[in-house]
Amino acid sequence: YGATSQQVILPAFLAAYSGQSVDKVSLNPFRTIPLPNWQVRYRGLMKLKWFKKRFKSFSISHAYRSSYSVLNFANNLQYNANTPNETDVTGNYFNERLFTNVGLIEEFSPLAKIEMKLKNSFSIEGRINQDRMMTLNFNNNTMTQNTGTEYVVGLGYRLKDIPFNMRIKGKKIRFKGDLNMKVDVSLRKDKMMVRYFGEDDDLNDQVTGGQNVFNLRVVADYALSKNLQAGFYYIQDASAYEISTSYDRRSISSGISVKYNLGN
């Protein structure tokens, strides 16, 4: 088998991105055992006196999800089990199956996350997310790789029983409700690369896309009554692209909203 044979590329791809040894990776492209996913949340720190004194809740969490997909394949009509040494025009043995695309997706969502609620009504959240998606394309001997890392910090504060007066048609109306305020700041870095496999093709690897995205979100909600809620929001986005053919983008949006819950 040559360097671009599917019988070589596919096991090497799975070994490289799953952390297995090339001597132990299965040559069967179909998985008989599902890839493991997990989610872990730890709240045990609240048992300590220092945390009990300062926090209403404190948790640390981590989660991992992955998927492996054979997106398209077909039986090779030129393959003959009785003549296994027969080769194609490139000098490779005929494969029993012909694959078009194979995909692998991994997500640490979150890689690490801390949530805390203080006794003074403040809430703080911080998390890091990571993901990557790899797609093998055997039609043009390339692998497209998308990687992303996101950092998020959130702050919240609740003010209870805030009075609010409004005059409608000369009549004074008094409201009293909770004011919830939240600020979220995030920074995400995405990068897309196309890698070529074959002899010396690694010299042609190139970045084809990606961006750095900054997001600021400010939200405030005030409960006018049990069913009626007024809100304010401010959202700012900024994007800087990895390639020179795309222009940086900025956007700002803000406004007010009124929500009425018909359920109660």
Q: Based on DSSP secondary structure assignment, what is the total number of beta strands?
A: 9
Which structural class fits the helix and strand makeup?
mainly beta
The amount of beta strand, in percent, is: over 45%
Poorly predicted runs are none
Blueprint (SSEs and pairs):
Blueprint: H1 6-18, E1 38-42, H2 49-54, E2 55-75, E3 97-118, E4 122-137, E5 142-168, E6 171-196, E7 206-223, E8 228-241, E9 249-260
Antiparallel strand pairs: 1-2, 2-3, 3-4, 4-5, 5-6, 6-7, 7-8, 8-9
Describe the structure.
The protein is mainly beta and 264 residues long. It has one domain. Helices cover 7% and strands 61% of the residues. It contains 2 helices and 9 strands, in the order αβαββββββββ. The chain has helices at 6-18, 49-54; strands spanning 38-42, 55-75, 97-118, 122-137, 142-168, 171-196, 206-223, 228-241, 249-260. Strands 1-2-3-4-5-6-7-8-9 form a 9-stranded antiparallel beta sheet. The radius of gyration is 27 Å and the shape is elongated. The termini are far apart. The relative contact order is 0.11. The model has no long low-confidence stretch (mean pLDDT 87).
